[in-house]
């Protein structure tokens, strides 16, 4: 199993979004591709949060969509 590569910044250790996406896809190979992409986006958003909840994750997810659409996309993974 591969692990995400990290690097140090003034704020501390960080992991690139691309590295996170690759790791999530690797360890979730039995999911549908769309489910893997959603999970990867959620993980990438979660690493930037102190406290994780559905609304904050949806707002931090990357993409050219509204926060409401991102929250709706993330919700099934919380059920």
Q: Gist?
A:
The chain is mainly alpha-helical and 79 residues long.
Topology (SSEs and partners):
Blueprint (H helix, E strand, L loop, with lengths): L5 E4 L2 E4 L1 H11 L5 H14 L7 H7 L6 H8 L5
Antiparallel strand pairs: 1-2
Helix pairs in contact: 1-2, 3-4
Describe the protein in words.
There is one protein chain. Strand 1 (6-9) and strand 2 (12-15) form a beta hairpin. This protein has 4 helices and 2 strands. The model has no long low-confidence stretch (mean pLDDT 77). The protein starts with 5 loop residues before the first strand and ends in a 5-residue tail after the last helix. By secondary structure, it is mainly α. It is globular. Strands 1-2 form a two-stranded antiparallel ribbon. It has helices at 17-27, 33-46, 54-60, 67-74, and strands at 6-9, 12-15.
């Amino acid at each position: 199993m591969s692990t995400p590569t990290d690097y140090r910044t003034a704020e501390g250790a960080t992991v690139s979004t691309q590295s996170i996406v690759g790791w999530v896809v690797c360890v979730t190979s039995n999911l549908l591709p769309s489910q893997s992409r959603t999970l990867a986006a959620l993980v990438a958003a979660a690493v930037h949060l102190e406290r994780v909840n559905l609304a904050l994750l949806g707002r931090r997810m990357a993409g050219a969509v509204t926060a409401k659409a991102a929250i709706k996309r993330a919700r099934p993974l919380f059920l």
